[in-house]
Amino acid sequence: MSLQRLKKLCRDDDYYVRYFAIQSFCDVFTRIHGQTAEAKQILITFLQKLIIEEEAGLVRLAIYKGLFLCGDSDASAKIVSLLVDAMKKNDNRFISPALNILCEMTDILPNDLRKQVEFYMGEI
Predict the structure, then answer these.
(1) Where does residue 122 rank: exposed (0-12), middle (13-18), buried (19+ CB within 10 A)?
(2) First-to-final CA distance of the chain
(3) Structural domains in the chain, sorted by start
(4) Which InterPro entries match (predicted)?
(5) Contact 58, 19 (CB under 8 A)
(6) What is the pTM of this model?
């Protein structure tokens, strides 16, 4: 699938499509353009534009994951915050994807956030 097609899917009406398209777009973009500072800045700009108009929590997770992988240190805290809110609301359809993303990120999370995530994962 082309990068342009994925970019269009990032704005699809179905939030599940947007969730997977954003993650795929970040992966493909990084494979094509690498991890250079310039490439990361282009990806960050794209993701920041998406987050402004995005209301679906699931899609926000994918955006924050992309931002985190580009070096945004606040993104991991926002993912944890979304997870905590979902747990308080017993939103089970949201908790599992949030935990999956955090599990992928756990090895590279800052120590304070890793402890918080591990605590919440132990509670579930």
Answers:
(1) exposed
(2) 37
(3) 3-123 (1.25.40)
(4) ARM-like (IPR011989), ARM-type_fold (IPR016024)
(5) yes
(6) 0.82
